[in-house]
Amino acid sequence: MTFQKAMDGYVGPALFGLLAFLLRTSVFARLSINGVTPDLLLVVVVMTALRQGAFRGAIVGIVFGLLEDVATGRLIGMHALGLMLGGLAAGLLRRRLYPDPWFVPLLAVLLALALQQLVVLTTFFVARIGVQQLPLLVVIEYIYTVPFAYIIRPVFHRPEAPT
Q1: Cβ atoms of residues 50 and 104 within 8 Å
Q2: pLDDT tens, 66-114?
Q3: Which domains does the chain possess?
Q4: N or C: which end of the chain has fewer CB within 10 A?
Q5: Is 35 helix (H, G, I), strand (E, B) or coil?
């Protein structure tokens, strides 16, 4: 199996997702800022959606979201729904914008983070779970996550027009 075929299927994103999960729970857990680590799984989901489309982005988002939900021990489905919506939005953005411009990964990650945070905040509100310093934590997550879109992009990037 060639690298391009692996990246066009589920094998490549699955391997990068597992690597991102391991990095987030080990290395970046020690480098957290106020308990916030970069959301590498979200970046992998967004890059998968930009490469393969909305449907695969949503499927990969559900799988990685469930992995994150089980690992954190929080409300099951919260991250799965957030990452699914993020992958779906990034995949739909791919249809509207050709994925070569420099701003598309930035825009896709910002949109996916906003959708995921909306789901998490809504879930916390419904479950009456309070979060202190919420605006600061949101800003830290944006600043900490967005650069990884440009670090991971060359692996997922395919310089051709989407179908």
Answers
A1: yes
A2: 999 998 887 788 999 999 999 999 999 888 876 567 788 889 999 999 9
A3: 3-155 (1.10.1760)
A4: C
A5: coil
- Distance from C-alpha of 12 to C-alpha of 3, rounded to nearest angstrom: 8
Question: Hunting for tokens 């179908």 — which residue is that?
Answer: 163
What tokens does 55 get?
């449907």
Whole-number Å distance between alpha carbons of 79 and 1: 31
Residue with tokens 């469930």: 66
Residues 88, 54 contacting (CB under 8 angstroms): yes
Tell me the chain's radius of gyration from C-alpha atoms: 15
How far apart are the C-alpha atoms of 141 and 73, rounded to whole Å?
20
Give the tokens for residue 135.
Answer: 């605006």
- Record the pTM: 0.89
Using DSSP's 3-state secondary structure scheme, residue 141 falls into helix
Burial of 103 (0-12, 13-18, 19+ CB in 10 A): exposed
Half-sphere exposure of 63 (CA within 13 A, CB side): 17
Longest Cα–Cα distance in the chain? 48
Residue with tokens 């020690």: 30
